[in-house]
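Could you join me in thinking about how sequence relates to backbone shape in a protein? We need material for that, and I hope you will provide a protein of your own picking. Once you have written the record down, we can walk along the chain together:

…
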Amino acid sequence: MHSHDDRVPAQTPGEEGSAHPRKTAAAAGSFWFDIQVWARDIIISIAIAVVVIVFLYQPVKVEGTSMMPWLHDQERIFVNKFVYRFEEIRQGDIVVFRFPLDPKKSYIKRVVGLPGDEVELIRGRLFIDGRRVDEPYIREEFQDASTYSATKVPAGHYYVLGDHRNTSNDSRTWGTVPREYIVGKAVFAYWPMDRFGVLE
């Protein structure tokens, strides 16, 4: 008697020891199709990223300490260049703008006075239209104890200050910023990684 395990399935000619040529070609075709789809997706993603950066966001490197502790020297951030087409510039916004005295240079500061506001600093404390403004983003050791007489912000202009008040070169020295000089709003920090996050 023979065990059932001794039986060997019948084979058709040409089947033993070789793969079916049509299956091999199909596998190769599928592989190259996947590569093409992957390459296409990468190219589209890069194109979208370029459009977003060019038309909506601009990478900016912070130079100097005038916005400490909120922004540090050499920190990298993204500036939204499109946001102010849909919303108004608000008190407290951090903006990048062309320096009024030399438009080839760019500065980054915080907006504290809007068009029509009367801005005054008394022993370093900010007053708008005679009312004291709370500024929790300023550290006491960065405060400036100087007094600056009241300034009326002209229409279409903004009064800007650095958060590091005792080192910042800002509207206290050279005046207000015209609306058309404002490039956009600082919205996101991306480098170094321990500073990564939304700027709110």
